[in-house]
Structures are given as structure tokens and as C-alpha cells.
Amino acid sequence: MPLVKKKKAVPINYTSEIAAKIQQRRLQLLVHSYLYYERNITLIEDIKWDKWAKELVQLQKDNSELADKVIYADAFKDFDGTSGFNLPYKDERIVNIAMRLIK
Q1: Region 37-50: what's the mean pLDDT?
Q2: Helix or strand or coil: residue 84?
């Protein structure tokens, strides 16, 4: 039986700069939430996380139809920017990014 390569989970590349920014902020918030809540590691100051969260909330509010098409849309549907505790930061893709970041 031939070996089947598992498709590597990678972020999606968007042609829209707004969609790309939404993806970037979502991934940043997820990765740093994982590091903070699971590994007790802080690589960025809280003020930076808050800035990213507020920017994401505004981007999603201003571009709701587009935001619904960007990776992790369901997880960020009701995101208000106050905390990353309830986000799906244990997702394998997020954990892998976080582990590469701390190496």
C-alpha cells in the first residue's frame, strides 16, 4: 500500500489585504494565548496583545462577511477582545507555530 502524505496544515494565503490581516491577528492571538495559558510564557507585553485584539475586533466588525471566510471564523465569531482564554489555542497548528516561536 502506498504511503499517503498528510497534508500540512498551513495558513491560507488571501488576495485581500484585509483578510490577510484578519488571519494574521487571529493567528497571533491564538499563538500567544497558547503560550500564556498553557506554557506560562509571555513573549509580548499585554498591551501589544490588547492592541492586536482591538484591531481584530474592529476589522471583523467592519468586514463581517469577509471575516466569516477567514480561518478560525467560528472561534472568533463572538470575540470581544477581552481574553484569549476561550479561544481554540490547543489546535495542533497553533501549538506547532508556538513551539517554533519559542525555539
Answers
A1: 97
A2: coil
Q: Torsion angle, CA of 11/14/16/19, rounded to 10 degrees? A: -30
Which uninterrupted H or E stretch holds 57?
A: helix 46-62
Assess contact for 59 and 15: CB atoms under 8 A: no
**Listed range (9-23, 24-38, 44-58, 68-82) with the worst mean pLDDT:** 9-23
Whether residue 11 has pLDDT greater than 70: no
Chain CA centroid to CA 82, Å = 15
Return the number of other C-beta atoms located less than 10 Å from residue 76's C-beta. 23
Distance separating alpha carbons of residues 38 and 56, to the nearest angstrom: 22
CA 3 to chain centre: 31
Q: Alpha-carbon distance 9 to 30, whole Å?
A: 15
What is the model's pLDDT at position 7? 46
- The pTM of this model reads 0.87
